[in-house]
Amino acid sequence: MKGHIRERSPGRWAIILDIHDPQTGKRRRKWHSFRGNKRQAQAYCAALVTDMNNSVYVEHDRQSLNDFLDAWERDWAAKHVGPKTFERYAQLLNLHVRPVLGDKPMQKVSAQDLNALYTSLHDKLAPRTVRHVHGLLHLVFKHATKWGAIIKRNVVALTDPPKVEATEAAVLKLDEIPQMFAAIRDRADLFPIAVVALGTGMRRGELCALRWQDVDMDKATLRVERSLEQTRKSGLRFKSPKSKAGRRNISL
Question: How far apart are CA 133 and CA 161, in angstroms?
């Protein structure tokens, strides 16, 4: 793989790379523009040739972040995550990422751009939500790095997302349990659910998906078979349990 430089005007250079096309077997030329002195242009040309020889060369691409996100949502997210998660991804991207960085060429999105985004979101969102934005962008740019040589490296890994303070989930204290039962004892719609939830630790979606056929009175067991979720697009739907234990039997 070879390359050479040609001066177009003072301080402006054309870098011409001779590329072997493995599909056609022919050689073609790839042009890059560069501003600087001759030594800098030669160094940049040498770096591009090295990248080619090491199979890490990335061609110049003007594809915007919005364009890549459209393809990513359609070709990956829609097929690999559940409807609720997909809805959340789209919400985070549409509200917080696309309006700020969407029109920027994907290859020009920098760690500085992302840190500025996190700073702007910090004033209006909880740190945990900003962290979710960071995690989602890390996944998006990871795929961009992996697919089609769109970018060389995942710039999201170079950023500093906000820290999230560890907090313990609020749980009922022993002396609060009788108070809760007393308050809802006459609520036929809530009392049975509260008893099962407290006795089993099941998630809300799992509780809402319970059927009588999942309960074995003789063996005093309850079978968790599915969970119920709601999305704006699909409404209510059943899915596999989210818990790490998945489908399981619970002794009553």
Answer: 9
> If DSSP codes are grouped into helix, strand and coil, which group holds residue 114?
helix
- Classify residue 150 by burial, with Cβ atoms within 10 Å: 0-12, 13-18, 19+: middle
Instruction: Give the pLDDT of residue 148.
Output: 59
CATH domain 65-158 topology? DNA polymerase; domain 1 (1.10.150)
- Most confident residue range from 20-34, 87-101, 166-180, 222-236: 87-101
In contact, 17 and 4? CB cutoff 8 Å: no
Residue pLDDT, tens place only, 133-158: 999 999 999 998 888 557 778 999 99
- Please identify which residue in the block is written with the tokens 């074995």: 216
Place of tokens 């960085």: 101
Domain boundaries, the chain: 2-53, 65-158, 174-251
Q: How far apart are CA 244 and CA 110, in angstroms?
A: 36
Q: Where are the alpha helices (DSSP H) in 156-246?
A: 177-184, 191-200, 204-208
